[in-house]
Amino acid sequence: MPLLPPVEYAVAVERYLAASGLGDGSRRVYRIALHTWAWALTDRTAPTGPERRRARPPVLPLALLDRPEAATRLRAAVDRRSRDTDPRTLNRELSTLRAALAWWRAQGWIGTDPAEGLRPRPLPSPGSGPEPLTPEQLRALFALRVPLREQVLWRLLHESGGTVEAVLALDADDLDLPHRRTRPPAPPLTWQAATARLLPLLLAGRTTGPLFLTSRRAPAATPAADRCPHTHRARLSYRRAAEVLTAHAPAHTLRRLRPRPGPPRP
What we know:
- The chain is mostly helical and 266 residues long.
- The protein has helices at 9-20, 24-41, 50-54, 68-81, 87-107, 135-142, 148-160, 164-168, 193-203, 238-248, and strands spanning 175-176, 181-182, 213-217, 233-235.
- A two-stranded antiparallel ribbon has the order 1-2. It has a two-stranded antiparallel ribbon with strand order 3-4.
- It starts with 8 loop residues before the first helix and ends in an 18-residue tail after the last helix.
- 32% of the residues are buried.
């Protein structure tokens, strides 16, 4: 039996997330993204930074999405956000909105697609990369109260200068903890005191398996190389790592954690 159409956008968001089959962490990230578009649809600017996660979205009738002005407001919001948001993050949030709109249309709750005509933002050319975070932005990011996994990942990415892919591919036995470096055949990476203090806490006695793990047990089809033999959890994916960073710091991306060029840091 079809669900009765909800009156409010926020209720429609919760019904979509409940039917999505996503894990708790991914639902939180999707909820933040969808609530951000609610601010745009009421022609208001969404909060940024930590306030974005805590802010309650404006009350919005779902029927507003069928009005002509909804598409105009969304286009304006995308233009505004593109000025200070990494294009990968913006494209991911647009994709989240499109998926929700398609599901609502399939339920018969709305009849139009206000995101029609919106195109993904072009990505930086290979080798250019996004602008690294400033020292002030890094201090603010590292001061956030986040799980240990994120503390280690973000600091290791910054201190080592390694690519996101290389860091997420590290295994516990790739690390030479006393010398603050990786062992061959892992990519040659080094790190500093902040990461060195946190790594033993993250490992907690693990000597093999992926360094960075998901919070859930690995699916049965997960390759052995991407499953921890101690906890039976899976290797953390790029997508999930990016979602968690975006949830805590919407304007930042994992690639912006790389160090700025210049003289070696003390």
